[in-house]
Amino acid sequence: TGDNYEKAIQYVTDALTLEPANAALHTLLAEVYTLGPLSYELAAQEYRRALEINPYCVSTLLGAASLYGLPEKVVMLDEAITWLEQAIKLDPNNPHLPAGKSVPAS
Predict the structure, then answer these.
(1) Which of the two residues, 106 and 84, has the higher pLDDT score?
(2) In whole angstroms, what is the distance from residue 25 CA to residue 103 CA?
(3) C-alpha 72 chain-centroid distance
(4) What distance lies between CA 35 and its chain's CA centroid?
(5) Predicted confidence band of residue 102 (pLDDT cuts 50, 70, 90)
(6) How far apart, in whole angstroms, are the C-alpha atoms of residue 54 and residue 74?
(7) What is the CA radius of gyration of the chain?
(8) What is the helix (H) or strand (E) element at residue 13, kind and residue range?
(9) Can you tell me the distance from the alpha carbon of 87 to that of 93, in angstroms, rounded to the nearest whole number?
(10) What is the pLDDT of residues 54-88, one digit of tens each?
């Protein structure tokens, strides 16, 4: 429910006050924003913070890139391509990515 998502946001935000450089917490907060209140702009901000701290996390790269194409336009095409190409370099055998191929620009 909405109350549970608000509680989750508060818990993760509280944890981030203790560990602001924890990329996993920023990713978790981004995921909560996309699942609960659908605050895509806030989710994009948290994914970007996580990637500034740790640009090598494939799940964060994929989560951030997944925001491309939303009507809110919170992620631009060049960002999404960069993130997906980085994810492919880091994990070329990931079944969620086109193995050994660069991301096509559309």
Answers:
(1) 84
(2) 28
(3) 15
(4) 12
(5) low
(6) 20
(7) 14
(8) helix 2-18
(9) 10
(10) 999 999 999 999 999 999 999 999 999 999 999 99
Rounded to a whole number of angstroms, the distance between the first and last alpha carbons of the chain is: 37
- CA gap 76, 11 in Å, rounded: 29
Q: Is 1 helix (H, G, I), strand (E, B) or coil?
A: coil
Spell out the residues 6+ positions from residue 9 whose beta carbon is closer than 8 angstroms to its own: 29, 32, 33, 36, 37
| Amino acid at site 37 | P
Residue given tokens 């901000």 in the structure block: 45
Q: Which residue has the tokens 């050994």?
A: 100
Q: Which long-range contacts (CB under 8 A, 24 or more apart) does 43-47 make?
A: 43/67, 43/74, 44/74, 44/75
Q: How far apart are CA 14 and CA 8, in angstroms?
A: 10
Which tokens go with 50?
């996580």
Q: Per this entry, what is the length of the chain?
A: 106
